[in-house]
Amino acid sequence: MVRPGGRSARVQAAVHAAVRELASEVGRDALTVPLVARRAGVTPSTIYRRWGDLQELLSDVAVERLRPEASPGDHGDLYADLTAWAEQFLDEMASPAGRSYIRDALLGDPDGSNAGQCSAYAAEQLETVLARAAGRGDVTPDVETVMDGVVAPLMYRILFRPDGLDAPYAHRLVAQALGRTGP
Amino acid sequence: MVRPGGRSARVQAAVHAAVRELASEVGRDALTVPLVARRAGVTPSTIYRRWGDLQELLSDVAVERLRPEASPGDHGDLYADLTAWAEQFLDEMASPAGRSYIRDALLGDPDGSNAGQCSAYAAEQLETVLARAAGRGDVTPDVETVMDGVVAPLMYRILFRPDGLDAPYAHRLVAQALGRTGP
């Protein structure tokens, strides 16, 4: 674990920033460890020691980029909250940048912890939506049911089967997960 | 498209065989294009010209390894056929070899056609199961419903959220996809 503000945290911030800057300047495929090290003001061996290789570093950066920036919006009821969330999730993950981050997160991830973190982000957001609905007195499905019924089909189709992946499809998944046949 | 028996098909077979042999002898991470070329009796430039790079070659080999070897078994009714199929799919895909092939298939796949092929294999097998049930006079869900309800959660959890991924979970997914609360 990294102590905030310590040297280790400063190195991490500088290296992540260097990856993001260089990816937008020269493109992700042109990145190398020496290039990133030079921009971050660290030695290549600092990067190898901490991240192992470029793919693991890109995986860590991708997970940071996939971290949600805000709590899910409150639209007054569970169906509206979940459809809005699913639509935004689909927009972000199915975008070229989103797809690229998902692939990076999956790839340089020998122990699966980065992929697990991506999934945990989605589960935390859904917990917020479901707790809010429970607070309104709604009967809600549990979070794993929504992961299976909404997040899994969206992510599976983004990675493997992209035809027909649009907002109405996301809405149908939410309706089914809530045991409704339509909005 | 490759004409069966032609030079192109022979090169492909030799290169795929070289990858499989070398992967079991020296390990997947030690593979290089020159090593594969030497074993296959082709020049490295033949491999670069045809596959672009090692990752695309590994992706093609992975898709071949993920191709189902047999038609889904006939167990007398739709629930039994789908649970048996889902259990076998989970066993194969969640194994260390299966996970490694899925990652390879996703990675060296710039246009998504290899990932699409993996998904098509599953859909074809499910079509067979569903057509057989329809032939018995059963009312069946359509194949995309089973993809969303069974294949997507299994694959999502294999890649992102492996806790609790076992045969009883696969059975519950099948029961839900068939609109049943239990076997």
From TrEMBL, chains A, B:
<dbReference type="InterPro" id="IPR050109">
    <property type="entry name" value="HTH-type_TetR-like_transc_reg"/>
</dbReference>
<feature type="DNA-binding region" description="H-T-H motif">
    <location>
        <begin position="32"/>
        <end position="51"/>
    </location>
</feature>
<keyword id="KW-0805">Transcription regulation</keyword>
<dbReference type="Pfam" id="PF00440">
    <property type="entry name" value="TetR_N"/>
</dbReference>
<protein>
    <submittedName>
        <fullName>TetR/AcrR family transcriptional regulator</fullName>
    </submittedName>
</protein>
<keyword id="KW-0804">Transcription</keyword>
<dbReference type="InterPro" id="IPR009057">
    <property type="entry name" value="Homeodomain-like_sf"/>
</dbReference>
<keyword id="KW-0238">DNA-binding</keyword>
<dbReference type="InterPro" id="IPR036271">
    <property type="entry name" value="Tet_transcr_reg_TetR-rel_C_sf"/>
</dbReference>
<dbReference type="Pfam" id="PF16859">
    <property type="entry name" value="TetR_C_11"/>
</dbReference>
<feature type="domain" description="HTH tetR-type">
    <location>
        <begin position="9"/>
        <end position="69"/>
    </location>
</feature>
<dbReference type="InterPro" id="IPR011075">
    <property type="entry name" value="TetR_C"/>
</dbReference>
<dbReference type="InterPro" id="IPR001647">
    <property type="entry name" value="HTH_TetR"/>
</dbReference>
